[in-house]
């Protein structure tokens, strides 16, 4: 690793597995590498669907139909509920999910939906950039103190809140 880090190729990436080695002497990863590494897990979240249902249960049919831009409102509200569910689900993974613990709650989601309603009612077009900023930097981002965690949340919003969401061509399989 030290030899490769002197003149690395731009596309060079090193992946280290947390799977224990059969030989205990080979399974020691220096603490400095673990602390500076980006942690990825491939375990499917077990409660994401329950978290989405719990998030959606906070809103009545009247709420869903209250906005003059009903299609956009419903689509973005679902994306926000999905976003909230993902953030809540990551908590189960402890230090692998978040670098620090954050008190995300349904109040963040409720306020975000109120902001969404106001912005849609007062805008001709959906202000995607403004909404991503408000949700990622203020509503949910206000809790986040770690730069990598903030970057992750903003990346989720870039993927979830985009024009294709309301145009009916959004494909999450990519």
From TrEMBL:
MF (Gene Ontology): dynein intermediate chain binding; dynein light intermediate chain binding
An annotated GO BP: microtubule-based movement
Domain Dynein heavy chain AAA lid: 73-170
Pfam families hit by this protein: AAA_lid_11 (PF18198)
Gene Ontology cellular component terms for the protein in this record: dynein complex
Gene3D superfamilies hit by this protein: P-loop containing nucleotide triphosphate hydrolases, Region D6 of dynein motor
Name the record gives this protein: Dynein axonemal heavy chain 17-like
Species name: Bombus terrestris
Origin organism lineage: Eukaryota, Metazoa, Ecdysozoa, Arthropoda, Hexapoda
Gene: LOC125386642
